[in-house]
Amino acid sequence: MIGQLSGTLLHKQPPMIVVDCHGVGYEVEVPMSTFCNLPATGQPVVLLTHLVVREDAHILYGFASAPERSAFRELIKVGGVGPRTALAVLSGLSVAELAQAVAQQQAARLTRIPGIGKKTAERLLLELRGKLAPDLADAGATAAPVGDAHTDIQQALLALGYSEREAAAALKALPADVGVSEGIKLALKALSKG
């Protein structure tokens, strides 16, 4: 099993990145919390990973922190929740926010995440109870924006399943100087209200 990748970030387009490890380029899918904290392409990067082996594919998922990877592993143990849904959850909520939602049994907070319906949210709350420590450090700390923040925010929203129109509308409401991480959070809040 591949537990960690250390190499050079070659390419990033949410939710997929490519990491060059001594001449081998690994495609890695990452949650938006990790994506927002990635360095610029060409820079060194270290990711904790989880390998999912399916009949038709081997897919590598990467995380910036141990709490993120641990939360991902707990999420995919829940019936009906696959890796893509787990990534969506970790893209919509930080590990600390997820732990808080589970501890306080806030189904409405989970249903704001694209792809999470009422039944899935209730199943997550039931099966994750006591498995996520509420004092987990927030793995989604803000990072300095790299390149055009609005472009990165739009790509992130599209990767999460929002339409071009929805993404464009959310971008219009954002301040011009917003960073990628904060911009995604603000855009997701605006879209969840709409």
From TrEMBL:
GO molecular-function term, one example from the UniProt record: four-way junction DNA binding
Region called Domain I, residue ranges: 1-64
Superkingdom: Bacteria
Domain Helix-hairpin-helix DNA-binding motif class: 73-92, 108-127
Keywords recorded for this protein, A-Z: ATP-binding, Cytoplasm, DNA damage, DNA recombination, DNA repair, DNA-binding, Helicase, Hydrolase, Nucleotide-binding
Major site of localization recorded for this protein: cytoplasm
Record GO cellular component, one term: cytoplasm
InterPro entries: DNA_helicase_Holl-junc_RuvA_I, Hlx-hairpin-Hlx_DNA-bd_motif, NA-bd_OB-fold, RuvA, RuvA_2-like, RuvA_C, RuvA_C_sf
Keyword Repressor on entry: no
Region listing for Domain III, in residue ranges: 152-194
Compartments, as annotated in UniProt: Cytoplasm
A biological-process GO annotation: DNA repair
Swiss-Prot/TrEMBL domain comment: Has three domains with a flexible linker between the domains II and III and assumes an 'L' shape. Domain III is highly mobile and contacts RuvB.
Complex formation: Homotetramer. Forms an RuvA(8)-RuvB(12)-Holliday junction (HJ) complex. HJ DNA is sandwiched between 2 RuvA tetramers; dsDNA enters through RuvA and exits via RuvB. An RuvB hexamer assembles on each DNA strand where it exits the tetramer. Each RuvB hexamer is contacted by two RuvA subunits (via domain III) on 2 adjacent RuvB subunits; this complex drives branch migration. In the full resolvosome a probable DNA-RuvA(4)-RuvB(12)-RuvC(2) complex forms which resolves the HJ.
Described function: The RuvA-RuvB-RuvC complex processes Holliday junction (HJ) DNA during genetic recombination and DNA repair, while the RuvA-RuvB complex plays an important role in the rescue of blocked DNA replication forks via replication fork reversal (RFR). RuvA specifically binds to HJ cruciform DNA, conferring on it an open structure. The RuvB hexamer acts as an ATP-dependent pump, pulling dsDNA into and through the RuvAB complex. HJ branch migration allows RuvC to scan DNA until it finds its consensus sequence, where it cleaves and resolves the cruciform DNA.
Family: Belongs to the RuvA family.
Name listed for the protein in its UniProt record: Holliday junction branch migration complex subunit RuvA
Source organism of the structure: Tepidimonas ignava
Originating gene: ruvA
